[in-house]
User: Fold these one by one.
Assistant:
Number 1:
Amino acid sequence: MEKVNLEAKIREKVGKGSSGRLRRTGYIPAVLYGEKEEPQPLIVNTKDLEKALSTEAGENVIISLKVGDRPRTVIVKELQTDPVRGDLLHVDLCQISLREKLKAAVPIEVRGEAPGVKEGGILQYRLREIEVECLPTEIPESIPVDIGGLGIGDSLHIKDLKITGDIKILMDKEETVVSIVPPTVEEVAPPTPEEVVTEPEVIGEEKEVPPKEVGEAKEAKPPAKEEKKSEKAPKAKEKKK
C-alpha cells in the first residue's frame, strides 16, 4: 500500500468558535496521537484530506504527515462528518510504525450474482466491515465475498471468506456476513364486520308496504274520539219588565 502525502500546521487556538472559522477558510481541526507523545492539535487543508481519503484504501490509507520539518507515518483514527451535508468536520490521526501490527476495519465487497436473487430472493447484509489485525502495509482495500453459489435460504459466514496474507480476523468466525432471504409476501386480512360495505338508506324515501300490511295498518288505527255534546240546557232569556 502506497503512502499519501499530507501537510498539517500546529493549531494555536482551540474551541468551537475557532473551529467554525477554520472550516470557513478551507481547513478543519485535527488531533495527532502518538504512543509516547501528548496529543497535538493541528489543522489540515480540507481538500487535501479529501483527496487522501479518495484512494481505494479509504480511511485505511497510510499517510505521510508533514508537520513542520518532521514527517510522520499516520493513519486515520476517527473521522467526523456532517450528518446532513457529509462535510468533513474533524479528524483524529494516529502515529504508527510500519513494523508493528494494528487493528483495522476493512469493508466487504460482494462479488458475483446469487441464483437465489434471480429466483426472487433478497440479498441481506449482516456485516459491512470485518475487523482484522495485520501490518499497516498488509491492510486490504476490501474483503471479497463471493455470492455466486447462494440460493434462497443460504448464508455466508466469516469462516467462508477467503483472505490471503498474514491477516488475523478478530471476529467470531461463525458470524453471518450475507444471506439470501425469501421475498416477503404481504397477507391481506379478511374484512371485519365494520368494514363490510352495505347499501346506504336514502333519507326521505318511503318504504313500500305489502297490501296485507296496509290493511292491518288501517284496522289497527284507533277510532277518532267523538266530541261530547254539552248536556246543560241553554239559559232562558229574562223578560223585560
Note: The radius of gyration is 43 Å.
Number 2:
Amino acid sequence: MTKIGNGFAALLLAFCPAIPAFADEAPPKVTEAFQYVVSDTGAALEIDWAIDECCYLYRDKLSFESGDGALAFGDFQLPEGLPHEDEFFGKQQVYRDRFFVTIPYTVKGDRPQTAELVIKSQGCNDVIGICYPPQTWTDEVKLRKVSAGPPKLKLGQFGDTANISSEFPPVDEVFFPEVFPVDGNAVEVGIRVVPGFYLYKDKISVRSLTDGAKAGRLDLPKGKMKVDEYFGEMEVYLDSIVAPLAIARATPNAMDIELELKYQGCAEGGLCYMPQTRVIAVSLPEASTISDLSALPSETAPVSEQARLAQIITGSSIWVTIGLFFLAGLGLAFTPCVLPMVPILSGIIAGEGDEVTPMRGFTLASSYVLGMALVYTAAGIVAAAAGLQLQATFNQPWILILFAGLFVILALGMFGAYELQMPSSIQGKVSSVSGKQRSGTMIGAFVMGALSALIVTACVAPALIAALTVMAQTGDMLRSGSALFAMSLGMGAPLLLVGAAQGKLLPKAGPWMVAVRNAFGFMMLGLAIWMLSRILSGNITMLLWAVLIFMGGVFMGGLTTLTGESAVVQKLGKGFGFLAIIYGIVLLLGALTGGSNPLQPLASINLGGATTVAEAEHALPFQRIKTVDDLDRELAAASSQGKSAFLDFYADWCVSCKEMEAYTFTDGDVQAALSNTVWLQADVTANDDADQALLSRFGVFGPPTIIFFGTDGQQRHGYEVVGYMKARDFVEHLQLALGESASISAQARHE
C-alpha cells in the first residue's frame, strides 16, 4: 500500500479565485486534505479515501486510468456522493470524510509485479473558501501474485470449502472489514467488497468485547434485493459499505476497545463462504458524555419474534411469506388457541349421525376451517385499519355467556334431551330437493368456524402481531392479509385430518354411537366451562370442572356393578370412570377450600404450614396500573431506585395470560431473576379509553404482551414478549433484556 500526493500550495492564488485576499492562515496542502490508500485484491484495485473534515472532493472530477497500460479497467460505479451547490460548478455531488472505490481489472499479457494507476481529481476547502487546482497523481501499485485468468467457481455445495479451486481467492481477499473512530462515542464500520461478490445484510452484526463499552445497533444502509439460491430473496450489498455505530461508555477517558464483527457473503455464480468472525481493535478518544450501558440497544440483542416475522412480510417474496406463516399457524394449532376447536368440529361431524363418511367429514372440516380463516383474516384487517381491539370486543362477558350457553344447548342435544327437527311440511319440501340438508350443514359449519375465529381463538401470538403491525404501519393489506390467511389455514390444517379421521372411525350405528354422542356432549360442556373461566373466579371454575368430571365418571360406568359376564370394555370403563369420580371429588374439595388450579387442587390446604409458606414465597408482586400517568410515575420511581421494570398486559379472558401467571411468573428462577425489577401489570379487560391509551402508547394489539424497561426508565426495544413463554425460556430472555441485574439475581438464588 502506498500513499501518493503532490502539493501545489504555491500556485493556489493563481489558480483559485475563491481564496480570500487576506487569508489569516495558509490552507492545508492538497496532500494533507485528500489522502488515499490503494490495495490490490487480485481482481480489483481498492482505493480507500480519507478526506480532511475541512474539505470535499467533486465526484464528477474523479477518474482513474492505467498509467503503463498493463491493466484494462472494467466497468465500475463511483459511490453516491452528498448533494452540494457552489458558485463555480453549480449543483454537484461531493465526497466528505471516507469513501471507497473498487475498480475491477484484467491483466494485458503476463501479470506484472506492479502497475501504474493515474488518479485525476479536484476538491475544495469550504472552511476558508478555497478550491484546489485539478490534480493528477500517479501511484505504483504492487499486484498480488495469482494464477492467470479470472477466479474460477468450483463449489457445488453450500458451505463446502473442500472443493474450492486454489485459484479462487480466500475470504480475506474478498471482504475487508475495517473500523474507524469518529469521536468518543461513535465509530464507523466498513466492509470493502470485491466486484463479483456480495454480502448478506442480515448476517452482519457487531458487539463489543470490552468491559465498560457497549456497541449499539449498526445503522446499515439499504441494500439491493437479490434472489439467492440458498436463502431466497435477500437484501445484499454488491459494493463496499460504511455504517455508523454508537458506543456507550462507562467512563469518558480515552480507551482501546475490541469489536467483534460477524458477516457472511457469496460469489456470483454459486460459492458461499462460511460465516466469518473478526475481532478489530480501535482506539477511542475522550468522550464528551458517558451512557447507561443497559439503555443502549445492542446490535446483538435478539429482535422480538414478531419483529422478525414483520420483516419477513415486508422483505421476502409473497410466496415465502405465505409458506412461513402457514408453518407458524401449524405451530399454533396445538396450543390452547386452537385446540378448543377440535371438540366443536367433532360435535358438528357427530351430529351427522351414521351417514358420515371420510369425505363428508373432510368436507365439513373444510367448511369450518374456511369460515374460521376468512373471518379471522377479515377481523385482523379491520382491527389493524381502524385500530380496534376486536379481541377484547368479542370477549365481553355477555358474549362469552351467550356462546357458553350455546355449547350447553348443543351438549344437551348430544345427550338426547331434545331432537331438533323441522316441521314435517317443511321437511318434506326440503327433502325433495337433493342435497339441501347437506348444504345447510355446510353453512352451519362455516358459521361455527366464523364464530370460533372471533370468540374461541382469543390468543395473541407473534405471527398475528407481525401481520397486524405491517397492516397498521405500511397499509400493505395484500401481503399482511395473505400472511394472516395463510396462518389461519395452518391453524386449521390439523382440523381437516380430524374431520377425515372422524368420518372413518366413528361407528355408524348401534350402542357405540350413543356413547360417542355422550362423549361429545361432555366435550361441549367442557368448552362452555373453559369459556366461562375467562370471567369466573378460579375456585368457581374448578367447582364446575369437579361436577363435570364427576358426572363423566358416572357416565363411563364408574358406579356400575360388574358381573362375571361383563365385557373387557365395561371393566375398563368402570376403572377409568371410578378414577374420574375420585378426581372429581378431589377437585370439589380443592374448590371448597379456595383452590383454583385443577392440576394442584389441594395446594390451598394447609398441611403443617408448608404449603402456605411456599405460596407466600411464590406470590406475584404485581403493582396494578391503569393509565399512562400511572406508568410514568412507577417508571420514575423504579429508575430513582436503580431498578428495571416490566409491564405485563393482562385480561381476564386471556388464556395465555393465566398460563403465564400459573406456570411462568410463579417459577422460583423467574422470581429470582426479577428480584431487582418492579412488576407492573395493566388489566385491560374493560378495554376502556384508559386501556386503549396505554395499549396505543406501545403499539400493543392485545394481551399477553410484556414490555421491558431499563434502569433509566426507557423501553428496551426488541425484547417484547408476546404470547406464552415457558419459565426456562423466560429466564434466558430476562438475562438478555435486563442485563446484569437479572443474571446476578438468578445466580444469587443458586449460591
Note: The domain at 9-142 is CATH 2.60.40.1250 (Immunoglobulin-like).
